[in-house]
User: Which sequence fits this backbone?
């Protein structure tokens, strides 16, 4: 009887400890829509803010591939993650391998978004936000899950 109670208590403590402070969202759990840039500045958005599907986005796949949208062109590439030794922070390397070449009304905005993605070196997921940081730890992009940004 004591063994059963000890096993149940141990399992409950293990489950509780694992879930404290963790977000149910992970990198490859959704399409991520850009909502902010460095230190809270707004990421440049297309003129039609009523269309959430036209915002810059990125999707990470479990096989290490990624794809995204710049508000004008689509891109694809790969990514690698590894532990950083810091709580809740994971190292992230993003490689953009190719992009469509449509003529965009605001090419500078598109290039700024791609450049920010290339500067990413780590990320955290908390409070329904994906925060990407550069090598100095400064936030360069903040994303929200598309499932939470699209109105139904």
Assistant:
């Amino acid at each position: 009887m004591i063994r059963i109670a000890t096993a149940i208590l141990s399992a409950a403590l293990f489950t509780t400890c694992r879930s404290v402070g963790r977000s149910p969202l992970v990198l490859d759990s959704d399409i991520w829509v850009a909502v902010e840039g460095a230190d809270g500045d707004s990421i440049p958005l297309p003129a039609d803010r009523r269309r959430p599907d036209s915002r810059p986005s990125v999707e990470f796949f479990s096989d290490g591939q990624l794809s995204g949208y710049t508000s004008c062109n689509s891109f694809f590439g790969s990514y690698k993650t590894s532990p950083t030794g810091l709580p809740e922070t994971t190292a992230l390397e993003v490689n953009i391998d190719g992009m469509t070449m449509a003529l965009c009304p605001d090419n500078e905005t598109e290039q700024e978004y791609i450049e920010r993605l290339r500067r990413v070196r780590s990320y955290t997921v908390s409070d329904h936000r994906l925060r990407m940081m550069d090598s100095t730890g400064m936030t360069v992009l903040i994303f929200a899950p598309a499932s939470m940004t699209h109105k139904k």
In short: The helical segments are 2-19, 107-119, 146-149.
